[in-house]
Design a protein that fits this description.
about 25% helix
């Protein structure tokens, strides 16, 4: 389900929350909605609380597939579904290989069954010794 959600062309999410509590009487109401390729999803929540608090929040987010950036990085047009399902091999140029290895380091070497990582970069050649005087 998550892969199919992110594999679409885009999503728009927004919501809001209002909470007020004073002593033993408190209420919290939240509403959220999301629009995407698979349709509309809505959520509503209500709760009771105690204490002293008042707050309001408004949230929004967009998630878009940037086809031109993907084509530039991978050297050919690819879809989000192809990337998330592991159907596209990673680029093999030096900058991309270094980028993938940084991601592996940052993510703690976590890999999934469909993950494809390029081979590690070769070490740089040794420097020649300085000329003798």
């Amino acid at each position: 389900m998550a892969i199919s959600t992110f594999a679409g062309k885009g999503q728009l999410k927004f919501g809001g929350d209002v909470a007020v509590a004073a002593g033993p009487l408190g209420r919290d109401v939240a509403v959220a909605a999301a629009f995407g390729d698979s349709g509309f999803t809505g959520a509503f929540s209500y709760s009771r609380s105690q204490g002293l608090f008042a707050g309001v929040s408004i949230e929004g987010a967009t998630l878009l597939t940037r086809d031109q950036d993907n084509a530039s990085f991978y050297g050919k047009p690819v879809t989000g579904a192809q990337l998330l399902n592991g159907q596209v091999p990673p680029p093999t140029d030096a900058a991309s290989v270094a980028f993938y290895h940084i991601l592996v380091e940052v993510c703690g070497h976590q890999r999934t069954a469909n993950a494809h990582f390029p081979p590690p970069p070769s070490p740089p050649p040794p420097s020649p010794p300085p000329p003798l005087p």
